[in-house]
Specification:
The chain is of the alpha/beta class. It has 6 helices and 5 strands. A 5-stranded mixed sheet has the order 3-2-1-4-5.
């Protein structure tokens, strides 16, 4: 039986611009799960506060796949790839994190002691048992945590892109297909971070 549960989720599948990000999180037993929820149901202030606690207390990883790679491999594959990257980052930290928690390392392959839950209907290719479940980001604390760090990190990146391309309003809509975003793209053309395989 798996000893550790990691949650996986992505942010940014729907936007017309920018990267897709993913989070991977294993929570300690004493984590204050009351601060967690589906990232879309938390205010920005609560997401940022929760992310800080997650990064302080949990074992986590973040994956980022840029707009060009999304165009090359399609958004579903890019989302799964971001989850792979996030898992690999989390996995690299895991031995030290377990030691900090006073947990003895399993004598068997560590990946065999992990079970992953991902939001949605597709699992990434990762070296542990994984199951997917729609709306998992509203059911499992580990997936909630993953959704939060994925969302917060992507939002930070879009705010930085807004400084480079202020005419597109990325700090406000984060690249999602709002009427304002579509209008400016039609008026002045696509931005350098546009997903060119997405239609609007």
């Amino acid at each position: 039986m798996s000893k550790f549960v990691c949650g996986l989720d992505e942010a940014g599948r729907g936007p017309l611009a920018g990267p897709v990000t993913a989070g991977c999180v294993i929570l300690p037993k004493d984590f204050p799960t009351e601060i967690l929820n589906d990232s879309k149901k938390l205010s920005e202030k609560k997401r940022v506060a929760a992310e800080k606690v997650i990064m302080e207390k949990a074992c986590w990883g973040i994956g980022v796949v840029d707009h060009e790679t999304i165009d090359q491999m399609n958004i579903l594959r890019a989302s799964m790839y971001a989850m792979q990257i996030a898992y690999e980052m989390m996995r690299a930290k895991l031995p030290d994190w377990l030691s900090s928690q006073g947990i003895a390392l399993p004598q068997t392959d560590l990946d065999a002691c992990i079970s992953a839950i991902t939001d949605g209907t597709t699992c990434p290719q990762i070296p542990c048992a994984c199951r997917c479940e729609p709306k998992a980001d509203g059911k499992y604390p580990e997936v909630m945590a993953a959704s939060i760090i994925a969302k917060v990190e992507r939002d930070k990146m879009m705010v930085e892109f807004d400084k480079l391309y202020p005419e597109y309003g990325y700090a406000k809509h984060k690249g999602y297909p709002t009427a304002a975003h579509i209008a400016v793209c039609r008026e002045i053309g696509m931005s350098p971070i546009q997903r060119r395989t997405f239609t609007f």
